[in-house]
Design goal:
mainly alpha; elongated
Length: 88
């Protein structure tokens, strides 16, 4: 095992001194969400999955070209909302 180099800059968000890692081991920062945030993220993921399925079906069956653009716009908006929730 090897140790991370010391000294660290004082403006880092967390103190990593003394943490030992194995070669190839990744550092995972644990983010905590409250129940409301978890629920919102879960709802957005389900909505995203549903929109992806609808978009796939709309591409296979091109009855209404406006539906394809509407679904793509909704999908983009849903991805943005999900990213915003995960960052907060």
């Amino acid at each position: 095992m090897w140790r991370l180099p010391v000294p660290f800059s004082s403006d880092l968000p967390c103190d990593l001194r003394g943490i030992s890692l194995r070669v190839g081991q990744k550092i995972r920062l644990k983010m905590t969400f409250n129940k409301k945030q978890k629920k919102q993220i879960d709802v957005e993921r389900k909505k995203l999955q549903q929109l992806q399925q609808q978009l796939s079906g709309a591409r296979r069956q091109m009855d209404d070209p406006e539906e394809l653009t509407r679904l793509q716009a909704e999908l983009t908006a849903c991805e943005n909302r999900l990213k915003k929730l995960q960052e907060s």
